[in-house]
Amino acid sequence: MEKAWERDADGATGLRSILTGKAGLRMGIVAFLYFAEGFPFGLLWDAMPVFLRQRGLSLETIGLISLISLPWSLKFLWSPAVDRWASERSWIAATQVLMALLLAVGSIGEFSVGLVFAWLMGLAILSATQDIACDAYTIRLLEKRELGAANGVRVSAYRMALIASGGILVAVSGWVGWEGAFFECSWSHGGLLFGIHQAASPQL
Fold first, then answer.
1. What per-residue confidence (pLDDT) applies to 4?
2. Considering only CA atoms, which of 68, 92, 97 is closest in space to residue 105?
3. Contact at 8 Å (CB) between 76 and 170?
4. Which of 20, 163, 183, 188 could disulfide-pair with 107, CB 3.0 to 4.6 Å?
5. Does the residue 118 lie in any domain?
6. Could you tell me the residue range of the domain that residue 108 belongs to?
7. In angstroms, rounded to a whole number, what is the distance separating the alpha carbons of residues 96 and 108?
8. pLDDT value, residue 74
């Protein structure tokens, strides 16, 4: 007897076909993309207030971190440039590399408050730009019938990234210090880039 989860209903793709073959690989790419998209957001909004407080900054100064949300609110201003110049894969690779480099810089040591906020703003701009490219690439990658399943993968991967960068990273910083935690984040971005590059084929 055919199992319910193997059947297609009302034109929807069965679970088996979603998780196997090229469709399954596309779901894996979506998971990589949205983990990469969520990681810097959790870093900036959950881990950074703890980092800044441990550096002795006042709550009033830390409150200014809300200004770092501006790139996400204003990214529509440069989204046409992302669509027009180069491919989405190129933008994703470029933003991942630059974020990895910025995180490596964060592992060097102490900086002034002004430099720290400039560093955070740089990460936010790169993250917002990556969001544009990831969303556009995902739309081009998926078939229409896969969008529902991909949305579940996208949300799950994004939330896992928030937990990793907002919770686990803070715990790791207690063992290896913030410099070590940022260095590990830098390598994590390199690993995500490698995974996306290896999986994301134009033939998909």
1. 42
2. 97
3. no
4. 183
5. yes
6. 15-62+86-199
7. 19
8. 92
Pairwise CA distance, residues 27 & 142, whole Å: 9
- Residue 12, pLDDT > 70, answer no
CA 18 to chain centre: 23
pLDDT, residue 126, reads: 93
Q: Which two tokens stand for residue 185?
A: 């984040």
Give a yes or no: residue 49 inside a domain.
yes
Give the count of domains, the chain: 1
User: What span, in angstroms and rounded, lies between the C-alpha atoms of 59 and 52?
Assistant: 9
Residue 178 inside a domain? The answer is: yes
Work out the average pLDDT over 123-152.
88
Q: What is the CA radius of gyration of the chain?
A: 19
Cβ neighbors of 63 (< 8 A, separation 6 or more) are none
Give the Å distances, CA to CA, from 172 to 1, 119, 166, 179, 185.
50, 21, 11, 11, 11
